[in-house]
Amino acid sequence: MAEELDRRAQILEAAFEEFAAKGFKGATIKSIARAAGLQSPALIYWYFEDKGALFREVLELRALKAPLLQAVSDPAPMIDLPPEEVLKKLGRAYFGFEQFDRRTIQLVLGEVLRNQELAEMFVRIGPGRVFGFLNTYLERQIELGRLRPHDTRSSSRAFLGMLIPQIMGRVFFPTLTEDGLTDEGHLETAIRIFLKGLKPER
User: Fold this and answer.
1) For domain 65-197, which architecture applies?
2) What DSSP state is assigned to residue 66?
3) Residue 63 — very low, low, confident or very high, per pLDDT cuts 50/70/90?
4) Phi, psi at 184, each rounded to 5°
């Protein structure tokens, strides 16, 4: 059993390397098998139905390592904490995106934009989980009287949307962050603006 798990992990790692280097179309079962040190490409089909299933599992495994997804993986302890605390934790995890493997980001952006099925799967395992947590959390904060009633679907998108220019500047467009604004400085200001707009009406 342990040997099977090792072999599966070996195939997934080799598949990631091949997909990252050649893209979904360029990588073949034969090249993945060779990279994994397998005697025969047919052994991959023992673990995965086809190349598409292997790619989906590689993508899910990599996406789940993203700091923001790890931050919302256990929502129960955070659900009643004050917004200032939880939003700061989420923002810091979001900015941890830069530590995420750049090849994974490139693979996701390159393949997901070309494949609607993969795009939907990625949304479910990635952004969908984050927005799901934020919706539930903000609804709870409304119940507790900390935020005024509003459509939490919009506020969830608005909060994460406020952080996009900062992370995009660091990861892809450095000129956006040439003004010296730090992640922490931007996050504190964004949270203050966000919560001021949702302050309960007395």
Assistant:
1) Orthogonal Bundle (1.10)
2) S
3) confident
4) -65, -40
